[in-house]
């Protein structure tokens, strides 16, 4: 019997796969526990439409990430922190402060976990901070660290 899996089933297949399994196993386990549905022409068509919709949504997310990356490339954020005379700051500037400054100054909600700082910013100056907006898109935000 051909079945469309609604969830991952160990040693059978992954979600949204069409698998061919024994009739008894399908009726008594897969269908009874709502782990899958029978692969009728209507259900196969629904699966195809769902895949097309998912692909369209993924393309829209990628396009939105590219637009945001283009906008962020031309913008900069200023972060003020207490610093000594030699340009070394007391403490450091982390992604949390950068995300808060971006929200306040540019009105962008950037996830601090997506910022890829190799190490916290410990000197006054200008830095380019890479931000992973999408698995295929990485933007760079200019961060200006100023002393108080």
Structure, described:
The protein has 148 residues and is α+β, with helices and mostly antiparallel strands. The chain has helices spanning 23-30, 41-73, 95-105, and strands at 2-5, 18-20, 36-38, 76-81, 88-93, 121-123, 125-134, 137-147. The strands form three sheets. Strands 2-1-3 form a three-stranded antiparallel beta sheet, covered by helices on one side. It has a three-stranded mixed beta sheet with strand order 4-8-7. A two-stranded antiparallel sheet has the order 5-6. A hairpin with a 2-residue loop joins β7 (125-134) and β8. The chain starts with a strand and ends with a strand. The mean pLDDT is 92.
User: How large is the share of residues in beta strands?
Assistant: 25-35%
Query: Which word captures the global form?
Result: elongated
Mean pLDDT: 92
Derived structural class: alpha+beta
Write the element-wise H/E pattern from the N-terminal end onward. Answer: EEHEHEEHEEE
Proportion in helices: 25-40%
How far is the first residue's CA from the last residue's CA?
A: 72 Å
Q: Could you name the ranges where pLDDT drops below 50 across 5 or more consecutive residues?
A: none
Q: Tell me about the biggest sheet?
A: 3 strands, antiparallel
- Number of helical regions: 3
Please state how the strands of the largest beta sheet are arranged side by side. 2-1-3
Compute the gyration radius: what is it? 25 Å
Number of strands: 8
Name the features.
alpha+beta, 3-stranded antiparallel sheet, 148 residues, 35% helix, 8 strands, 3-stranded mixed sheet, 3 helices, single chain
């Amino acid at each position: 019997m051909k079945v469309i899996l609604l969830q991952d089933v160990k040693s059978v297949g992954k979600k949204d796969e069409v698998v061919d399994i024994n009739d008894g196993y399908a009726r008594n386990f897969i269908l009874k526990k709502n782990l899958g549905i029978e692969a009728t022409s209507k259900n196969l068509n629904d699966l195809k439409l769902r895949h097309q919709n998912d692909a369209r949504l993924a393309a829209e997310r990628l396009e939105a990430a590219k637009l945001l990356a283009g906008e962020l490339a031309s913008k900069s954020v200023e972060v003020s922190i207490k610093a000594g005379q030699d340009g070394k700051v007391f403490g450091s500037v982390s992604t949390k402060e950068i995300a808060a400054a971006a929200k306040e100054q540019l009105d962008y909600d950037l996830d601090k976990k997506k910022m890829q700082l190799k190490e916290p910013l410990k000197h006054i100056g200008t830095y380019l901070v890479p931000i992973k907006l999408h698995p295929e898109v990485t933007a760079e935000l200019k961060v200006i660290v100023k002393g108080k």
